[in-house]
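Q: Got a minute? One more chain.
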Amino acid sequence: MIDQLLRFTPILKQKIWGGEKLNQLLHKNSDNTNIGESWEISDVDGDESIVSNGVLRGTTLRNLLKECKQDLVGNYVYETFGDEFPLLIKFIDAKEVLSIQVHPDDDSAEIQESFGKTEMWYVVQADKDANIIIGFKNNSNKKEYLQHLADKTLPEILNFDEVKRGDVYFVPPGRVHAIGAGLLIAEIQQTSDITYRIYDWDRKDVDGNYRELHTEKALEVIDFSAKDSYKTSYLKEENISKEVVSCPYFTTNIFPVRGEVKVDLSSKESFVIYMCVKGEVTFTYKDQQEVIKMGETILVPACINDVIVLSTGSSELLEIFIK
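A: Always. Here it is, folded:
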């Protein structure tokens, strides 16, 4: 049995579109510039998270799962995903707009021996007039899409949403998307690093080369239909955890905290991840206390049935699990 709350050392990724917010706002303490992503919890090959606290310090998430199995993730999750941790948890800083891209579903990704990529975004901070690209403005088709792609006018047929702090977007496989410049995002996704890059604004990498595009692969998975709205609506209530997004791969709740709250996790047959997206929260389990500030993450193993959370001010958590 795992008898502790788990913290992990963030894995920081330099990106050509990355900026300084992960250092300046989320205190990731990197000497490098252009840090675009902080992988908070990861079981991606070559990027396995390492426990940073308690008696398990230095253990990889992968080895922990192989040893502890259901105690870590819960019976249903272990039966479904086995020794692969099913989620990848990130903070993303887009100083510049990301490439326009699309992700495959599980069936399409099987060829590459990987999970597909269903994900969601929570906007932690947004500069004035910052926007995201999400889906098509109107129903499109392969012919129209390819013509605009060839003419380098693809953005003309895509939907742009101006966003603010607290906005949520669910991004299923097949939905064309791009995070715009000036956004700090919390991202929850399936454990997968598969992305089909469609258009990269004709920019070059640090070596002066254009990044690879995946035009043919993207065509196989793009959903050309338009939606009336792409933003996810949700309600908040102080000291109550309320559902924001739920899909077969993850459920994410919003949990505003003020004062002390005892959290009963016994009904969840899953690990629970908390991402702090505002303020500072103290977690207490038995004699263990862990303070997580905005931009930090903690994992509660499935075998732990309750924790106490405390915020002396007004804080907000994302509560993530599988049901």
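A: The mean pLDDT is 95.
Q: Perfect, thanks.
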